[in-house]
Write a structure and sequence with these properties.
heterotrimer, A alpha/beta, B alpha/beta, C alpha/beta, B: alpha/beta, Rossmann fold, six-stranded parallel beta sheet, C: alpha/beta, four-stranded parallel beta sheet, two-stranded parallel ribbon, 12 helices, globular
């Protein structure tokens, strides 16, 4: 209704407010933490929110998956094509790697009812708030980090930032926003019933963050 | 519109409910404590509030231009934009979008603005099934109630009450008072609804003009479900929600989550800038934003009250309000309760209908102290209170200015003015009262219900001072 | 006044004073509040500090007269009065840096800081500081001590039941400390809390800080 648009805008324009004061964003101080300090802070914060964190050299990833997935009785893992290629060769045959390689609609029932875990990359992590940052892509679609009970997120140690401001400006988000940017800071939770914390409400029940060192 | 009892009865109901008092007493203490732990450093808090306040003031100062820019960039991102001046209009727009998409089942994330326009009732009347998916809202919907707090909608319900409601609606599950089990049951019930819904509806926490992005905070994941799984997503945003730049977001997000639930950050922060692109595999195929006015542009014009629009809906003022703690949310009878509610809603719905809400405040100032964007709530409430009995400037912005002026009250203040405005008159009265103090009533209405009535002293301070030889000018 | 005089201050109590205008201002009757507030100004012409033994009255003059006199011809004069206002404990601590010798018996008290002393005048730390100078006084802290007691001036009349419920929570918290006395900078709060305590047949006394300081330092216990 462009008529409403005009009415609203006319009313808003009729008031000239004093905009002489500068906008003060108060960027958080960058402390110049070392890589290991960042890893520690990220790890501590994530654990406080009941996420699990493991730090390992990149090449150990497949071994970790081979050991941990059967231990946790995970029989299949959803993966984008790129990561699937990386891990399939070394993965034990007992674990099925399912590729999210078609559109959501025909896949939805399987995604909701059969997929037990997913593994995605990240564009980085934020140490201050204990968050991993995802920019879903055609290869790693949005629902991967939301629907399965278990979400495994891979964070490269070089991509850990101190603050949210920092990752936004360093990675120049404003120039090219992804269709969906996500900050994920733990498994899903609620305190709606008598303020008692309960986990695994609608999003993943478990978030496992693997911090990969070179 | 639900039929509501007059305010007096709603207050009585709330105050006589022991369970309610206990629930709210402990809930508010919990939330106050949580928030306080997030702000250990006084100076840091001041800086954070200054920043958040200046970002919001900036948005309001440039509002029309920012909204135009927001629309431009949303549309560039293939997100359709609609403008609604009234709540009716917004409901009709949303209905039309759903109708065109042949959407019969809708899942909804927690959104106070959709409560404001009474969307659920409207859509139900049109035969569209709309399901609340935030656990608190889900429970409140099952109980056929409205939320009593803007961040914790089921805060008025005890665990037992929730278990009972749940068991009534889902007899296939065993009765339990275990919070984890109830939560898992809810998860199970809702998963298929997310998967099969024709549309998802959400609110918006921040709308970034620079990039055409809508941002949402949540802990449960239901918001992301509603905005990602169904083929159609409709986001409803009050026009004041726009921020200028992406760089504005971190400061606001930080102070929002800390003020609201005492969290460093919520589990998910969801920033949406596009529906599903051609090469993408999931996400909504169609994405709409409805920009809602519903009285906001009028408030914006009001020089004195426009700061009301800085609100980022954190709920901190509500959590710290001693009156809200006593009454709970429902007694207010409004969508938004507590300090922000009694400031915002009389401006939207008029003083004739809601002016008496301004009396639900002892002017203690706690709200003003905690507002992350420094809205001077006590000052605004007091100003609005003044408008209920007399006013001129605001008549053009708010309906019913002066409509609550009552003859007896007005007369009393006139008498007060004459006595206290004249030192001779006052002296005479003072002598009379001190000499005839024994005649003063032992019971003075509501005061005496809870306290011993004070009686005037035998000597006035002025006389005491005189006796002590203290100079009098 | 006695405490100030004892510190060597010349005290003037202008006899023509009546009220700062707060009751009407907080009830929305600003025109009436203005008339009464204006009448106070001629009582305080000299450029000397104005000491107010009440946080809310002090706050009214210091911070709210600005709104009340906004656009009025005597706005500047009103502001010059406002500038000179000190709340009583603020004056004792900041201006006099008062010393206190405790001559009373050991006792336990609770302190009720009023909303205006906390959120307007910001002098809640002053009463605590003054009490800390009394060597035989132990302060017991009640739960939720920064929560409003429910007085709110005309609020206690207009919303008597809500106010009653608030003062009940407040007195419960105070009674739970087992203090023998609760002191405050604020007469309104004291009337409210004291009146409620008395109605509940509690033995806890209520005293204004000035009375309390005088009793403790004046060898009368």
């Amino acid at each position: 209704m462009s008529k409403s648009k005009n009415i609203i805008l006319e009313r808003l324009k009729s008031k000239i407010h004093d905009s002489s004061h500068e906008k003060d964003i108060a960027l958080m101080t960058i402390n110049g933490w070392t890589k290991s300090e960042m890893i520690q802070m990220l790890s501590d914060k994530l654990k406080l929110s009941k996420a699990e964190v493991f730090v390992m050299p990149n090449k150990e990833l497949s071994n970790w998956l081979n050991e941990e997935l059967p231990k946790r009785e995970i029989k299949n893992i959803l993966s984008g094509v790129k990561i699937a290629e990386k891990i399939t060769q070394n993965l034990t045959s007992s674990i099925e790697v399912v590729k999210y390689d078609g559109s959501y609609e025909p896949f939805s029932e399987q995604l909701f009812n059969e997929i037990e875990a997913s593994i995605t990359g990240t564009v980085g992590a934020i140490a201050y708030s204990g968050s991993v940052v995802l920019h879903p892509t055609p290869d790693e679609p949005r629902l991967m980090s939301l629907v399965p009970d278990i979400h495994i997120a891979l964070v490269y140690e070089d991509h850990i930032y101190e603050t949210f401001d920092q990752i936004i400006s360093t990675q120049r988000w404003s120039e090219n926003m992804p269709t969906n940017a996500l900050l994920i800071s733990g498994p899903s939770k609620t305190a709606d019933i008598e303020q008692v914390l309960a986990y695994g409400v609608h999003g993943p029940k478990e978030l496992i963050v693997l911090i990969l060192t070179s | 519109m639900h039929q509501v009892k007059p305010l007096k009865f709603r207050i009585d109901d709330a105050l006589s409910n022991e369970q309610l008092h206990t629930n709210f007493r402990s809930a508010m203490s919990y939330l106050v404590e949580k928030r306080s732990r997030q702000f250990p450093d006084k100076e840091n808090l001041i800086n954070s509030r200054n920043a958040a306040s200046s970002i919001r003031s900036n948005s309001l100062a440039k509002l029309p231009g920012l909204l135009i820019k927001l629309e431009e960039n949303l549309e560039k991102n293939n997100i359709k934009v609609h403008w609604a001046e009234t709540d009716d209009e917004a409901n009709n727009i949303i209905y039309q979008i759903l109708k065109e998409a042949n959407a019969k089942t809708v899942v909804k994330g927690k959104s106070m603005v959709t409560e404001e326009i009474e969307l659920n009732e409207f859509l139900n009347n049109k035969g569209i099934d709309i399901l609340e998916t935030d656990l608190g809202e889900f429970l409140v919907q099952l109980a056929n109630e409205t939320p009593s707090h803007i961040v914790m909608p089921a805060i008025h319900k005890s665990r037992k009450e929730i278990s009972r409601v749940f068991a009534e609606h889902f007899p296939e599950f065993p009765y339990t008072e275990n919070v984890d089990l109830i939560t898992q049951q809810a998860r199970q019930i809702l998963r298929d609804r997310f998967r099969l819904a024709d549309a998802g509806i959400s609110g918006v926490n921040f709308a970034v003009a620079e990039t055409g992005t809508i941002c949402l905070v949540e802990n449960e994941g239901n918001g992301r479900m509603c905005t990602t799984a169904p083929p159609l997503h409709i986001a409803v945003a009050g026009i004041e929600k726009v921020v200028e730049n992406l760089a504005d977001v971190p400061a606001l997000l930080n102070i929002l989550t800390k003020s609201a639930t005492g969290q460093e950050i919520t589990t998910y922060f969801n920033m949406i800038s596009s529906p599903r692109k051609n090469d993408e595999k999931d996400g909504p195929l169609s994405l709409h934003v409805v920009l809602l006015d519903n009285g906001r542009s009028k408030i914006h014009q009001n020089n004195v009250m426009q700061e009301t629009l800085k609100c980022i809906r954190c709920g901190a003022c509500i959590n710290h309000c001693p009156v809200y703690t006593q009454l709970g949310g429902h007694a207010y009878g409004t969508v938004y309760p507590g300090p922000i509610g009694i400031t915002l809603e009389p401006q939207q719905k008029g003083i004739t209908e809601l002016g008496d809400l301004t009396s639900l405040c002892s002017l203690c100032g706690a709200c003003g102290e905690v507002c992350p964007v420094q809205i001077p709530l006590p000052r605004l409430i007091n100003q609005l209170r003044s408008e209920t009995v007399e006013g001129d400037y605001m008549k053009q912005f708010i309906e019913g200015v002066g409509s609550q002026r009552k003859p007896i009250e007005s007369f009393t203040w006139q008498i007060w003015k004459y006595i206290y405005g004249n030192s001779v008159l006052y002296s005479i009265c003072s002598i009379v009262i001190t000499k005839l103090g024994f005649l003063s009533p032992k019971r003075v209405g509501g005061w005496s219900k809870y306290r011993v009535t004070p009686s005037p002293s035998k000597v006035s301070l002025k006389q005491l001072a005189k006796q002590a030889g203290i100079k009098n000018e | 006044m006695q405490i100030l005089q004892r510190e060597g201050i010349e005290v003037i109590y202008p006899s023509g004073q009546t009220c700062c205008g707060q009751p009407a201002f907080n009830s929305g009757y600003r025109k009436e509040a203005l008339k009464v507030a204006r009448a106070q100004m001629k009582c305080f012409p000299k450029d000397i500090p104005i000491v107010v033994p009440s946080g809310s009255c002090a706050g009214m003059i210091k911070y709210h007269w600005r709104d009340l006199f906004d656009g009025e011809s005597d706005f500047e004069s009103a502001m010059s009065v406002a500038e000179r206002v000190y709340e009583f404990t603020e004056f004792l601590v900041d201006k006099l840096d008062i010393n206190l010798t405790d001559l009373g018996e050991p006792t336990q008290i609770a302190i009720h800081t009023s909303c205006s002393s906390r959120n307007e005048m910001r002098v809640d730390d002053k009463i605590e500081l003054l009490v800390s100078k009394l060597s035989k006084v132990e302060v017991l802290e009640q739960e939720r001590k920064s929560e409003c007691c429910g007085f709110g001036g005309t609020f206690a009349i207009k919303q008597a039941d809500i106010s009653g419920s608030m003062v009940k929570d407040k007195t419960n918290a105070i009674k739970a400390t087992n203090a023998s006395c609760v002191i405050s900078q604020e007469c309104g709060c004291m009337m409210n809390i004291g009146g409620a305590l008395e109605k509940q047949n509690s033995q806890i006394k209520t005293k204004h800080i000035a009375q309390f300081l005088w009793d403790r330092t004046n060898a009368s216990g």
